[in-house]
Amino acid sequence: MWSEKYRPASLDLMVGNEEAKEKIVLWLKRWKPGAKAALLVGPPGTGKTTLVHLVAQKLGLYLVELNASDTRTKDKLSKRIGEAISSDNLLGTRTLVFLDEVDGLAGRADYGAVEFIKDAVRKSENPVVMAANDPEADEVKKLSSVTNRIEFQKPTLEVVEAHLAKIANNEGITPEEGRLPAIAKAANGDLRSAINLLQSGVASAKDEEMTASQAVNAFFGAPDEKAALKALRAYPDQPREKLRNLFTGVVRSRVHEDRKAAALEVISRADLLLGRIMRGKDWRLLRYLDPMLAEELWRALGDGGASYSLDGVAWPLQVRIWNDSKKLKEIGLRVGRRLGISQRGSLVEDMPYMLLLCGGAAFRDELVRSLDLEGTYGEFVFREAARARPASSL
């Protein structure tokens, strides 16, 4: 994988966020026991984890890394990092403790993890660095008293494009005119994604710039498979979002139920393929996704009837999101993590059906248990389950 091949080997080779690099190096050099931890905040793919590894390497620190969203209880955290924060390692060098995805310590399910982290930072004899994607997460705010925030920004399109040009030159390839800007835009500031797209060749056939809704509607209204494929390749965002937009259009379509079922079957198989690609990081297989959709999904829809609009949230669900936003978003976040989709995707696509199914006691109890929905969150599910059937029919 080129994303691994071209992972920066030193701080000097890391692209973007120069100010953040300077701040964390200076913080580590000045760090003393009792000092605050560093909290790296910024979108995925902006280099937070890479920076921690490179800084540890540069300063000769032994790195102890832990994903906080996978180790959410006080007991688990204590077992994994208890010794690391209180003493030198066996090699006799200073340890750098890294807690990634601290915004994954969600709600009451953290079972004292946040308080444990705060206490550990105050007592630690070694520096602690944390990272979070969502700067507005409650857990990030709770940790503000023991952290110094360092902001990460997405690299500009020009920076991403220049980096892609260097890689293309090293690989001995000459991208078609307009290909590198298209990839940089599609990656939306995620440098890893941009490199993967360059290697897979997915964005090479983009013939014109379209918005997401324009590309999806061009696909639904295409006169033939060739035009359908052209529309899919003009889609500006990530493959997962493309598939989600197609799903929304099919669900809302006015085609015969048999054809709708056939179209959803195609999307289901495409989703399975994309899942395997993501898990195995076999990005070259992405080149088969659009042709599959252009041939099978377009054929299943027949003579049209499907369309997509940007706002896919039904009005009754919007009202409930506004009124109970914290609880719905928290549940949507947990469901999204379990299903490998975004929080918004979980709220828009799955929540109405999930709450409807919660009308059955067995499903409701299993959902509450599997998502650790205690206290008011469990009560919320019980209440919303009673409302789901009339609301879903609007």
Tell me about this structure.
By secondary structure, this protein is of the alpha/beta class. The protein folds into 4 domains: 17-151, P-loop containing nucleotide triphosphate hydrolases (Rossmann fold); 155-206, Helicase, Ruva Protein, domain 3; 209-310; 315-392, no CATH class. It has helices at residues 2-5, 18-30, 48-59, 74-81, 113-123, 138-142, 157-171, 179-187, 191-200, 212-220, 225-233, 239-251, 257-280, 289-301, 315-323, 325-339, 343-357, 361-370, 376-392, and strands at residues 37-41, 62-67, 95-100, 128-132, 147-151. It has a 5-stranded parallel beta sheet, covered by helices on one side. Helix 4 links the parallel strand 2 and strand 3. Helix 10 crosses helix 12.
